[in-house]
Amino acid sequence: MKSEIEAYVLHRQTEGANALSIKAYRSQLRIFERYLTLTNTGGLHTLTRSMIEDFLYAMATNLNPQGAYTSERIRRTFFTVRCFFTYLEKKNQIIRNPAVGVQPPKPHKLLRDNYFTLDEMQDFFRRLPSETDKEKRNRMLFLLSYCAGLRLNEACNVKKTDINFESNTLYVAEAKGSSGGGVPLCRYITYALREHLDCAAQSATQTEYLFIGRGNAPISRDAAMDAFNNAVKSLGFTRYLTFHSLRKSIGRHLLESGLSVRYVQRFLRHKNINSTELYTHAGMRQLQSMVMRFHPGEQNEAVY
């Protein structure tokens, strides 16, 4: 990616950008490059809109060891990254600009709560409409993404044959930055999947994919994101939440329940544990609760 960054910087120089601007462009793109390296996200061709949103969220939380970046720094970096991908698209170096559709984050949205609390998650699914076939599909899509910790692309491309009811697992193919294999399924989602497949078997439309979009093809990423965004808005959630928040939420909920970060890493299929710690850092209240539960100074008899 270094060569692409330098080519873009040179392009901006030829357009007349001053020395300070050039320095800023290079610095901002190197932040983005470092994030991709930390998370093993993969090459420029594999990036998606949700990954760009995750990068902005990481800047607002713990990407920087010295503390979260300021809102203005995040906004400026976002605009630079978007222009960078526009340049690459015009040069035919990427097929699709992953920054298209990403909105510049507002300061009040750059918070550390880019996830659902457990109570919010339960309330989300409890109030989510499921009357029409489309609503049932969307609810199942969101539920499986949360329970199995699926990425957007993984969720959209789940096949019926990926589900193993004997072992209660879901097969997920290996991708860059993640390891593939079987993902354990809880009893609730297993029951819901059986019910969903029974309804699908009675449908006139038969296909290998679990979630169908237009033309019997798997639901597109854009359609899935739009469905999630509409659901979040209609249910009254006003803070910055993305489809990937479902995956972040289950990781955080498992950590808050006391599951080892190593097991969470395996569940989320992160090759690098830095990715797990970046996406699912425990909150201070949960950390304090767990520490005080086992700290010798909190026991009946002090050991000091």
What are the SSEs and their pairings?
Blueprint: H1 2-14, H2 19-39, H3 49-60, H4 71-90, H5 118-127, H6 133-147, H7 152-156, E1 163-164, E2 169-172, E3 181-184, H8 187-201, H9 221-234, H10 244-256, H11 261-268, H12 273-279, H13 284-294
Antiparallel strand pairs: 1-2, 2-3
Helix pairs in contact: 1-2, 2-4, 6-8, 6-10, 10-11, 11-12
How is this structure best summarized?
This protein is 54% helix and 3% strand. The chain is mainly alpha-helical. It is globular and about 65 Å long.
Structural summary, described in words:
- The chain has 304 residues and is mainly alpha-helical.
- Helices cover 54% and strands 3% of the residues.
- β1 and β2 form a beta hairpin.
- 31% of the residues are buried.
Relevant terms:
about 300 residues, mainly alpha, DNA polymerase, domain 1, hpI Integrase, Chain A, 2 domains, 3-stranded antiparallel sheet, 13 helices, about 55% helix
Topology as H/E string? HHHHHHHEEEHHHHHH
Radius of gyration: 21 Å
User: Can you list the strand order of the major beta sheet?
Assistant: 1-2-3
Low-pLDDT parts are none
Multimerization status? single chain
Structural class: mainly alpha
Task: Give the CATH architecture of the largest domain.
Answer: Orthogonal Bundle
What is the overall pLDDT average? Answer: 81
Fourth-tier CATH superfamily name of the largest domain:
Intergrase catalytic core
Rough shape? Answer: globular
CATH class of the largest domain: Mainly Alpha
% residues in beta strands: under 5%
Number of strands: 3
Q: Quickly count the helices.
A: 13
**Largest sheet at a glance?**
3 strands, antiparallel
